[in-house]
Amino acid sequence: MPATATSPLLQLEQLTSVRPGSQGQTIPVLEGLTCSFHQGSLTALIGPSGSGKSSLIRLINRLDDPLQGRILLEGLDIRELSPPLLRQRIGMMLQKTHLFEGTVLDNLQLPFSYRKKPLPGPDDPEVIRCLTLARLTPDFLQRDARTLSGGQQQRVSLARALISRPQALLLDEPTSALDRPATDSLGQTLQELCRSEQLAVILVTHDLRLAERISDQTIYLEAGRIVEAGRTAELFAQPQSEGLQKFLAEPEDERH
User: What residues contact 5, with CB distance under 8 A and at least 6 apart?
Assistant: First the structure.
């Protein structure tokens, strides 16, 4: 069932997940979590460390599977999709860029190599397209990816995620190692991409300034549960729960 203009691209239904404890017990990570994400909308996931933010996007990308519940992509349970196809439709950027040895072009060719597809060359329209979307120029293609600045590496990582033309983009603290100008620049790029490419963007961040500036919706997690969710401007201006009120008031270095 294809998503319509009003139906969500992604639906998460009653997700529960656990992790093993040090003494063989299971520790709850997410408990009965239900939410949805739309194309053309950027959602920020915020909350204290250990609240389940990164665990949630790992489930969406099937790096982990839930104990209970299901995740639907255009109405289809993602477990019915092969992991390579799922990750073609849902791109992901991690906190660390994980660029591989070689040139920027070598890194952009990796998704094709994984899928055993012909590798695009430097003049391939898709290569130029994803570079342009990530605000990089073609002269980057032959540069050593690991010698680039932190902001440039994140943009290469973004271009690599976009080259498969995903419907959704998952971002786990993509600006945590960047200075403020680079953070603001990447944030603006993500906001523009969300609109122009009609992506469902899900951003995990401790940077509340960034979340408030670029996100349409915000979900506040605490101990694996959604405490508050709604339009970002309203949620930041009038937090209803004591937990979110305290979280928004904390100094940034105490939120990590």
Answer: none
